[in-house]
Design goal:
The chain is mostly helical and about 190 residues long. Helix content is about 55%, strand content about 10%. α3 packs across α4.
């Protein structure tokens, strides 16, 4: 079946599978960094929205141009984009289908860092490297607390945070981190990931 002749019966499972695949990326229990060069439009941007951070090349363009095809984003764009940059900015991008240049993406919080196109992958690797030797359980808990907290009211979010915080006191990384802080000062701990 060609994409422009899909029936409702055909389109629903495609969108379900896309959303499930992208949600699996968003739920990776480690920090995820997207590296964007060239164009990240439609599903490309929706995939990048699943990352925790986006490093974008100066020449890159991002957007949700589905409206120009008579449809809307179907892999999470109408939900993840407003949560990241606010509803008015997201509606502008979704309603117009325009391509957003890198500098604007940075200004509105859609990009976390803009670098020369030739340095995107190196910058993304360096950013990811900042987390590679960190306390794995604490990073996982922080990601889960932030992401789950965005979906609920403040009191529930605080409870999510409290439970994750308390649970980390059973880890070797917590003991190593606090021991190192007392003995050597902040930021000098070596973590085992346990």
């Amino acid at each position: 079946t060609e994409i422009y002749t899909l029936s409702l019966h055909d389109a629903l499972p495609i969108s379900r599978r896309l959303q499930a695949a992208f949600t699996a990326i968003a739920k990776i229990p480690k920090p995820v960094v997207a590296a964007i060069t060239g164009y990240a439009l439609g599903g490309g941007l929706e995939l990048a929205l699943c990352a925790d951070f986006r490093v974008v090349g100066e020449g890159a363009r991002v957007g949700q141009p589905e409206i120009l095809l008579g449809v809307i984003p179907g892999a999470g764009g109408t939900q993840r984009l407003p949560r990241l940059i606010g509803p008015a900015r997201a509606k502008d991008i979704i309603y117009t289908g325009r391509f957003v240049p890198a500098a604007e993406a940075l200004a509105i919080g859609l990009a976390d860092r803009v670098v020369p196109d030739s340095g995107v992958y190196q910058a993304a690797r360096e950013l990811a490297g900042r987390f590679a030797t960190g306390p794995a359980a604490a990073l996982r808990a922080a990601k889960q607390a932030v992401d789950a907290g965005l979906e609920v009211d403040l009191d529930t979010g605080l409870e999510i945070e409290r439970l994750h915080f308390a649970g980390l006191f059973t880890t070797e990384d917590q003991r190593a981190g606090m021991r190192s802080f007392i003995d050597n000062g902040p930021g000098k701990a070596t973590f085992s990931g346990r």
